[in-house]
Amino acid sequence: MFTCNKFESVVLASEPARSARMTDQDPEQTIRAAFAAGEIEAAATLALQCYSDEISNFLVSRLGSRSDAAEVFSMFAEDLWTGLPNFAWRCSMRTWAYSIARNAAARYLASPHQKPQRRLSFSHLSNVSELVARARSATLVFQQTETRSRFRALREQLAPEDQMLLVLRVDRGLSWRDLAIAMTGDAELGDEAIQRESSRLRKAFERLKGELRRAAEREGLLKSRD
Predict the structure, then answer these.
(1) pLDDT tops 60 at residue 179
(2) pLDDT at 207 over 70
(3) Cα–Cα distance between 4 and 174 in angstroms, integer?
(4) Measured distance CA(179)–CA(172) in Å, rounded
(5) 136: which residues sit within 8 A by CB, 6+ positions away?
(6) What class, spelled out in words, does domain 143-218 have in CATH?
(7) How many C-alpha atoms does 161 have within 13 Å on its Cβ side?
(8) Which of 23, 112, 127, 205 has the highest Cβ tally under 10 A?
(9) Residue 115: which region, alpha, beta or left (left: phi > 0; alpha: psi -120 to 50)?
């Protein structure tokens, strides 16, 4: 049984944090430098290299299916590739990637039986093709303990939007500003709208913490504060 001071790190989190692959330098700076130099293909490739693992895992968590997540990852990769030339950098590349992934998942869920028409082929770009292929066969990795599984089961009872909020805030550590952009799927969101959405998400997050705490106490996974 866990005590209350471990609540957020154990009950709310569903998976270990993952970082971008470029450990020798800031991946955001590297991607933006390529973009500023007009090397759009290089910037898109770098973005996919840096964030493909965490995006594919996010999609598995969001959709609950490896096969569905693999399909949506291909949609995400295409959307990032085609949308990058018009990206205005009002948020980080990582935040934009989550926003794109969120929108791709929403489109897929709206028409799950209609296979999306591909506009691009990455066959001539071996690095990107490899990333997409690997994402299609990736498995979401969790710490496989019985208690962790029981906590995940509590989270999976939440509404999909609530689950996404927990994944992006707790597992991915997005700031409230970035969270507002990712959750709305709008990288051009104005400052006032971001503030309103951030406030709404903060309240929703506190509500979710309360709901999960009470559920964990009922299941005997967390000591009651009484």
Answers:
(1) yes
(2) yes
(3) 23
(4) 10
(5) 70, 71, 73, 74
(6) mainly alpha
(7) 11
(8) 205
(9) beta
